[in-house]
Amino acid sequence: MFRIGFLVNPVAGMGGSVGLKGTDGMVDEAISRGARPGAPARAEEAVRHLAGLPIRFLTCGGRMGEESLASAGITGYEVVYRPSGERTDAADTIAACRVFLAKGVDLVLFCGGDGTARDIYSVVGDAVPILGIPAGVKMFSSVFAITPGAAGTILRDGLGGGREIHLRDAEIVDVDEEQYRKGELATRLYGIARSPSRPGLSQMTKQVYEDADEERAKREIARFMREVIEGTPDTLYILGPGMTTAAIAGELGIKKTLLGFDAVKSGSLVASDLDERAIRELLAHHHRVRLVVSIIGAQGAILGRGTQVVTPYVIRAIGRENIIIVATPHKLSQTPRLFIDTGDSDLDREFGDTIQVVSGYRVARRVRIRGDTPG
To answer: How many CA atoms, within 13 angstroms, populate the side-chain half-sphere of residue 112?
Structure first.
């Protein structure tokens, strides 16, 4: 029987909706701002796909794994590690993985972010494969499936669908969160893990594109979006993170929060570095609102990676028809299909199979959106 070591980082991603751009060392601050854990529910969504398969789960007590398995209807599990306190940390993740290895697991399935992946890799290395259920704020590593459902599908099809699990080399990458909160993206490659994968379901490592043609394309997008924003003075525009949206702000003569959300109206800055609460307040006072976001290069995330302040509630309040996606032609050529992982699978499906992306001056194209199944 296939043996999976399963663990959940219960606090992963808690800093996202409250604008902290990460949770490492910021759990208390996230809680004080009203953040709530979302990882256990995402873990449950993934393992629900594995109910009834010939799998034995070795897991951790409470919210660190046991509760998600029980809620998903999984009965074939054994608790092999119990955290010492109510709030778990990296030491618990590391200790649990040591137990998993000692017990001879065939694979480690975890729910968390890049920091959790790094902690697991520090113990597991390439001894056994690892697969991530995305629940963090950023998740630049390629050991993650694109959504919780995709993680379940990868394992379900491999273990119960008559196929072998395909393994690939996957980068473990983490971001310096202190620098990230200051608007600087500093990443580090920690190692190469072995990870189950399926085309269209597995996440790629984030890429940054910088060349003359790329900068020219950003300027063309920015020029067009300036016309749109200045031509609709009754509309509030919320600009998401990234270099392309920063170019739009620059075209308007506004200094943007590079890795945050800023509000603009009539070409002027209204508010900067917004969290969900601040966005809700703006929605209550502005009848017409549009959201402008870019994609993560190569990885393909539109919503769900570094954009958690735009919660499902916010997206529904703004309206899918009022979301503008921008990306340069080169970035799109390296990212043939996009995905959305808001944490609300029903909302994700409402976006349909394709989405329009502004890619130049008065130029847009239709791009395919991936779901939880390949195709």
So the answer is: 30
How many angstroms separate the CA atoms of 248 and 239, rounded? 9
The sheet with strand 354-360 has its strands ordered as 268-271, 262-265, 236-239, 289-294, 323-326, 354-360, 363-369, 337-340, 301-303
CA dihedral 314, 320, 322, 326 (to 10 degrees): 100
Answer for the pair 35, 17: CB distance below 8 angstroms, yes or no. yes
Q: Where are the domains of the chain?
A: 2-196, 212-369
304: region left, alpha or beta (phi > 0 left; psi from -120 to 50 alpha): left
Query: Measured in Å, how far apart are the chain's first and last C-alpha atoms?
Result: 30
Give kind and range of the element (H or E) at residue 118.
helix 114-124
> What type of residue is 50?
L
**Tens-place pLDDT, residues 186-195:** 567 889 999 9
28-258-205-198 Cα dihedral, nearest 10 degrees: 80
E strands, 63-129, where? 77-81, 107-112
CB 220 within 8 A of CB 326: no
| Tokens of residue 228, six digits | 């749109």
In the numeric block, which tokens belong to residue 170? 């996957």
β-sheet bridge partners, residue 356: 366
What are 27-53's pLDDT values in tens digits?
555 556 655 658 899 999 999 999 999
Return the structure tokens found at 252.
């308007």
Q: By C-alpha distance, which of 231, 159, 157, 235 is closest to 200? A: 157
Bridge partners for 56 per DSSP? 3
Look at residue 229 in the predicted model and tell me its pLDDT: 96
- If pLDDT is split at 50, 70 and 90, which confidence band does 139 have? confident
Which residue in the block uniquely carries the two structure tokens 């570094």?
306
pLDDT digits (tens, 9 = 90+) for 59-90: 999 999 999 999 999 999 999 999 987 788 89
Least confident of 108-112, 121-125, 144-148, 155-159: 155-159
Q: If you average pLDDT over residues 141-149, what whole number do you get?
A: 92
Distance from C-alpha of 301 to C-alpha of 262, rounded to nearest angstrom: 19
| All residues at 6 or more sequence positions from 122 whose CB lies less than 8 Å from its CB, including other chains | 94, 190
Look at domain 2-196 and name its CATH class. Answer: alpha beta
